Amino acid sequence: QMDNKRQAMYNSPLYITENDNGDICASDDEKQAVVVVSKAGQHRFSYRGQEPEFHPYGICTDCSGNILISVGLLSNGTVEIISQDGHFLSRLFAMDQEITSPRCVCVSDKNNLYVGQEMSNKVKVFKYEFK
Predict the structure, then answer these.
(1) How far is CA 70 from the centre of its chain?
(2) Within 10 Å of residue 69's Cβ, how many Cβ atoms?
(3) Can you list the positions of beta strands (E) in the chain?
(4) What is the pLDDT of residues 55-76, one digit of tens each?
């Protein structure tokens, strides 16, 4: 499993999801990237976040094919949204507010965003409407 530069695609994949277009998206905290491959297994892109230090954990997709990534350290965190082509679209929370140590994320068919937090052992629910 090599990328376009003949480098190993994964070091330690943590979470995985399939997008509506058939792409497989995997978070890899050790590699500090979200790695996306086509349904044929071809490397499409690796997303490395908006900050110098990127710790992706849980990932999911919404009904538009956008990829949501829970990103965080022990004391703070956020959820980043990227397009199905790997372009940064938005950050849902500032790194110092609302959620701490997010580890998993899910969007329901009723447009609820669930964010699981490791240190507090809580799941927060937000209304999700991204266009």
Answers:
(1) 5
(2) 25
(3) 13-18, 24-28, 33-37, 43-47, 56-61, 67-72, 77-82, 88-91, 102-107, 112-117, 122-127
(4) 999 999 999 999 999 997 655 6
